[in-house]
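Contributing new records

If you add data, match the layout below exactly. Sequence lines come first and carry their own label; structure lines follow with theirs. Keep one chain per record. Anything else will be rejected by the validation script.
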Amino acid sequence: MEFILILLGVVCTIVGVIGCIFPAIPGPPLSYAALILLQFAKEEPVFSNSFLVKFAILTIVISLGDYFLPLLGAKKYGTSKYGIWGAIIGMMAGIIFFPPLGMVLGIFIGAIVGELIAGKENSMALKAGLATFIGSLTAVLVKLSLSIVMAFYFFIYLFKV
């Protein structure tokens, strides 16, 4: 049983890191699941309860932030409500119709279309699209950082005697 849990943990770790780049795969939750699997695989606890709680909170916050960072980036650069709604609709459409990269492109295109509908000039609409795109990239980097840290702990404690 220990071997199966560890193998599942390795798979979750690898897929979790990859999932940070592909929006259709929940990267940080999978990376966190790997830590839990390792905890159950070993006879003695590998991680403290506070360690697991801290990473659970980080996983939840960063996973939610993945959806809000692009919108916060748009809001910071003065995107109108039309641009925000366009980004939200574009994100949803991108996830449904063009996974895995559709989410990022959908946010970008949706924000631009929303701003154009609001009557903004092309340059302002493009600025809104770029702001949401930068927010999306920031979210990816934050998720990737967390998943890499969890992968580090997984493999360090996997081989710890």
